[in-house]
Amino acid sequence: MFPLKDSTILKMNKFPDLKKPSHLLATLFGVGKLPYGPGTWGSLVTLIIWYLSNEVIQKSILVLVIIVFSSIFICYLATKDIEEKDHKSIVIDEFAGMWLALFMIPELAAAGLTFLLFRIFDIFKPFPISYVDNNVKNGFGVVLDDLIAGLAAGLLTIFLYTFL
Fold first, then answer.
1. Could you tell me the pTM of the whole model?
2. Using CA atoms, how far apart are residues 137 and 139, in angstroms rounded to an integer?
C-alpha cells in the first residue's frame, strides 16, 4: 500500500486529537466521541449545565454572546486543517444552539420540550438549516446551522407555551 501524501487526510484520521485544546473544547471535553448520536449527548450536557446554572447565568445575554462567539472561534481552530468541517465529534456547536434555545424559553418546565425540539431541528435540518449546513463550510457555518435550529426550537417552545 502506498503511503498517503495528503496531510489533510492524515489529519482527518487523527481527528479529534484531545491533546489539542481546540479539539478538546470542540468535543466538549470528549463528549463528542461518545457513540450513538454525539450531537444528542452534546445537547444533553448543555441542558444539564444550563439547568445547574443559576437564573442570572441562564438569562445573561453576555453569557450567550460569549458562548456563541467562542464556539465559532473554537470551531474555526479545530477545523482549519481538516476537510470535513462539521465532523460528528464536534459538539460545541450543539452547545451554542441549545444554549440559545434554552435562553429563550419562558420557564424552567419548558426545558425538556426545548431539548426535544432542538434535536428534531438539528437532526432533520429543515430549510434554512439545511442550506447553511450544506453551503457554509467554515467555523461560522458549523455553528450557524445549530444557532438557527436553536432559534427555531426556542420560538416554537414559546409558541406552544403561549397558545396551547
1. 0.89
2. 7
